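Protocol step 4 of 5: obtain the predicted structure for the target chain.
Materials: sequence only (see below). No template structures provided, no constraints applied. The aim of this step is simply to have a reference model before the mutagenesis design in step 5. Sequence pasted as it appears in the construct record:
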Amino acid sequence: MVVQNQKACPRCNGHLLIKREATGWYEECVICGERKDISELVTVNAVGQIKILDRTEIEQKPDIENKLAQANQRHVNKYGQS
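Step 4 output (structure tokens):
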């Protein structure tokens, strides 16, 4: 399976192809050959449908976890261990 992402190459602004190989999912530029492993961005459900997550979803996840940990710590400080 191949999915095309137009003019998104960070190196040359070329078209990127997203494809699956035996070792994972890759994004590859058709012009300059720049290649990046994007396996952490791809999820496949039980019936085989794929979803390619937005990079901001992956980048924001640690921030959300940090905020949750801070909120939990404030709760413990205010009300004690529950």
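Step 4 remarks: The longest strand covers residues 16-21. The first helix runs from residue 55 to 79.
Proceed to step 5.
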